[in-house]
Amino acid sequence: MKLGRILLAGLLATLLAAPAVFAQDVAGKKKLAVTKITANPAVAQRMAAQGVGLSLDTIVQGLEAQVHDRLLNTRRFEMLERADVDALATESAAAGETFAFNKADYILTIRVDGFNDRVETRRLASLGKTISARAIEISAVAKVTEVATQRSIASANFSVLKRDSENRSENTIQRVGEATDELMMQAVRELAQKISGRATDAVFPARIIGMRDRIVTINRNDQAGVAVGQIWEVFAIGEELVDPDTGEKSREEVFVGKIRVTRVTPQNSQAEIIEDMGIDNRAIVRLLEDAPEEM
Prior knowledge:
The chain is an alpha+beta fold. It contains five helices and 13 strands. The protein folds into two domains: 29-203, Rossmann fold, CATH 3.40.50; 208-289, Beta Barrel (Thrombin, subunit H).
């Protein structure tokens, strides 16, 4: 009897501890590793020669943090970050394991291949003065690789251009802090959003997961770049297709309508159906038009 109570106590302790273990490996989520983000050597050399090498370093370091944050908040992935590889290796060694990227399902590689930090100057002849504004321009290439097959499943180019919202005349006294990182961080956040959105869609295409009358719910939250007013196209998944030249398999996508986003939450987003030719649950949705800018 005493032995039975001991065994029961041990079983209860194991069950109580289980959530802390299994929470790290939620069913359905894929493990995604982000390799250390770098800039092309030629870009780094050119920026150093122009005296803005520190700006480029700020961009690269900021991008590492922002991409990780955006991907984590999609709630689609368990994140493994290459920037923390030393810490992960140490933790694995302490547990008697060897850390390797084959523990990831997918690897995201990002390379900054273009950068400019410049001051744009315009001469307004009619007013007899010159105005200037700082501009930050970044371009990058991102690639998603499936670890099991070593196959690249998505690759795309991204670019962002940000200018000072305030134009200053040649007589303006430089404000304290105007040469800070804020404009660069705006560019980094936008670039990170674009990259994380494309990477997420490559593995988990956005889908309709609920319908009520003329309102649908899509599985994208407020961290996924969804905004009220956006127009999304809806596609039903058809039969399997095989390319006769390469043998590559894909699925037919049939256009079945359009939706307009009306509400965005930390969990999902809702949209009204504006064109319906057979919209149903689990249909894929893709952004067609961004929300109009407020005047």
